[in-house]
Structures are given as structure tokens and as C-alpha cells.
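Can anyone check this?
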Amino acid sequence: MIEDSPFVAAAPVLVPMPAERPYTYAVPPGMRVVPGSIVRVPLGPRQVAGIVWDGAVETVNAKKLRPIEEVFDCPPIDRAMRRFVDWIAHYTLSAPGMVARMLLRAPEAFDPEPWIEGLQRTLAEPDRLTDARRRVLETAEGGLAWTRSGLAHAAGVSSTVIDGLRAQGVFETVMIPPRPVVAAPDPSHAMPKLMPDQEAAADRLRSAIAADAFNVTLLDGVTGSGKTEVYFEAVAAALDKVRQVLILLPEIALTHAFLERFQDRFGAKPAEWHSDLPPRMRERVWRQVAEGGVRVVAGARSALFLPFKELGLIVVDEEHDPAYKQEDRVFYNARDMAVVRGHIGGFPVVLASATPSVESRVNASQGRYDRAVLSSRFAEAALPDLKSIDMRRSPPARGGFLSPVLLEQMQRTLERKEQSLLFLNRRGYAPLTLCRVCGHRFGCPVCSAWLVEHRFRGQLVCHHCGHNERRPEACPECGTLDHLVACGPGVERIAEEVVAHFPDARTIV
């Protein structure tokens, strides 16, 4: 908390650094800060953003403190989110400042979005009406505010026509507020007709939302059983209660298809949050989530650290997926942290999967989680045709990793002008690099893991602790040049082999 001491008002500020505790800063006279305020403070020679934290501060002489420079004009981080940061730091043995860093990843969002100068129709009429002016007036007759360039483009005229009408008082200058990043979803837009087992599961989720208390439901259903349609009903119930919703997805690649399904159900797309989002869009999403304007976010694990104003539901789709595990700097499983955030915030969490994790199955069997089971496929959908390839009977060519059977099926797919997806749960080019002369294996100097070669970047990377170094030309053990060999396949190596077999096909990793 913030205290008035005989010397100076002071506040604890958590900065996004490997700090084990908040630092104490002076609060200048006339400045008002509360726990959760995002502030700009000096840290060494730099200026950084930090969060006014909880806890008492000692009485300190003003001469020993550096002052808070600025309080950003944005909603403060609420008490539940601050508790969430502290909980993760304690549980994962991480510095609280490093956890807070994940919360402050959109620094340009701390200031309000600027309003835009626009034009709006008045009651005045132009002195003469040309075809161009008539088109402008017809376009603007709805009374909405337009930007100068937007109105000119919509009416198919030059900007000078707009300027002439404004000079005659036909348009007046108004300020247009920032537009929402997405439209508001409508819970009753396209309500589906559910199968009996789906309706029963949806009723259980609606009851959990209505209870407005912490609860975890494992939504366990075979592939194609309509789990998404069921948890969409929980989303609709949360939206009806004017609460925000977070839907976690394991992979960015799943986002596009999911957005379309969401739009079909609710008439608008959710806001996206993932690493491929442009910086400016990330800042706008962060700000509008904090202000409560964005009602639903679909994103990767980092979306857990968005500062929701009134979060009322978290859905973790494909909860078993290992992609929810963060293995860099702060180590955590987003599925488990979603449950923690729901517990701290006092709202329901839904875990959905066709193949639930062992942890979730045990929690459900022991009564910690509710469990809703969908045993039949939605709309009598057919299962895909699966075939296992015995690599002993159909071995790859020497030095390769793709079997002849697989290559033949890929060739047929290309001839039908269709696409192929190859999945391999190994990043990089190869999981191990060794010297053919002395047998030296490249290990991480920080931990005991092997270094993974990322050939596109020319680096050896530890996927355990994050250490990376350039791939050398010579063996560091025996000094022999050009005798380092990559052992085993990664996605980069598989892509290289695909290009060799199908040089005319477009390939991405």
C-alpha cells in the first residue's frame, strides 16, 4: 500500500526485470497512484514501465528515493491479476518482475488511443450542386462521421470536393473515437440445434456460468462430437451476463478456422492475441481488453496475461496439447494457470479435449473437476481414414525420413491440386549435432540438455533453458573442420526433404 511518511509518500513498484521484489519510489506531490497503476519510473539510466504493487513500504528519506515520473492514463491492473502474478512467481520459482513482464508487453497501449479528426453533415446546403457534390451528400446522408479520405473514397471524388463543401459549412469538423478492433459478438445470432448429449453438456456449462463461482468442467468428447458448439453456449451465457471471455488455442495455425466458426455462431470475430499479431494491433487489443471494449479474445497461452476488466470465463481448447507449456524464462503450463486464474477470479473454466490429459482425467475422477462427456459424433460426421505405415516394411531412402508410401500419397495429393500437412513434434533442423571424428556431442553449457540445430538461423539452441550460440565450422573438441553431422529429423530437415522430392510445390514450415 501507499503510505505518507514523515519524509515522503512512497510506493512499491514492480518493474519488468528479474526483480525478486518491488522497488520503492517516491510519489511526487499532487500525483495520485493506487495499487495496480501503471507508471513510468527510472531504473538505472533507463525509463521503464512498472506496476504499483501491494504491500507496505518502509519510511525512507526522500533523498534516497527516485520519483515516479508519470502515471499512465490506462485502467489499473486489478487485484485478482496482481495475485495471479504473485502466485505464478511463487509456484514457478520465478522473479515476480519476469512474470509482470508478460503483462506489460504492449507499452504503447498505456496511453489512450488518439481520436481522429472527421467530418459530419450539417443542415447547410452547398451554393451549387454538381454530380460530385451530390455523390458526397448521398454518401454522408446517414449522419455518421467520416474521415476526409474515407468520405472521398466512398463517394468516388477527390479530396478537394470535400474541402469545398467544408468551406461552405456543409460539413463540420468532429472528433471520431477509436474504432473497436472487432465488432461486439451477439449471443443469439445463430443459435444451433444441439443433439441431446450436447444439450445436456451445454446445460451444465450454462449452470456453471449462472453460479458465478469458480468451477472447472472437463468437456470430454470424441473428435467431431461438437465440443466447440457446446462451449460456445457457455461463451454465449457469459456474454449475456456482460462478462468477458478468453478462449485459449494451442497453435496459431488453428486460429483462422476457429475465427470463422466463431463468426458463424456470434456474427462477429473475437479479438486475436498471438505472437504473429502486428505490434499496433497488439497494443489496440491490449488497451480495449483493459477497458472492457473487447468481449472475447481467442489467443495463444500469452493471452492469459491480458488485463481483462471483467473476465467471466476461460475455455482451454485441446487442453492436452503440449504447446500450452511455456519453456522460456518463466516456465508454466497455460492450462493449469488458466485454472489458477479462474480460482483467483472466482469464475468458471472449461477444459475441452478429445484426448484429455492424465492430470485432467485424474482431477475429474477425484471430483475436483466436473466432467461432461460427448460420446457420439455431431451430425453423424464420418471419421477420417487412418493408416499406419510400418517403416520396417517401407523404409525411407538412405539419409531420408519420409517413407515411399507417404511420398506416393503426397504425390497423388499434389496431382489432385490439394494440400498436405506433415506434423513433427521437433522444432529446428536436428535434435543433436556431433563430430564424426571424435564423437563430441554439442550440449548446453547451462543445463544438461542437447543443443538443437536451427539451420535456417545458423544457431544451436537449447529448448530447455533458452541458451543459443552460433553453429561452429570446426569441432570445439578436436578442431576438425567440416565434420559436424546433424542427427535425427526436425521440421526444417523434413521441409528440406520435401523440397527435394517436390521442387515445384510451394512449401512452408
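Reply from J.R.: I decoded it. DSSP finds 13 helices and 22 strands in the chain.
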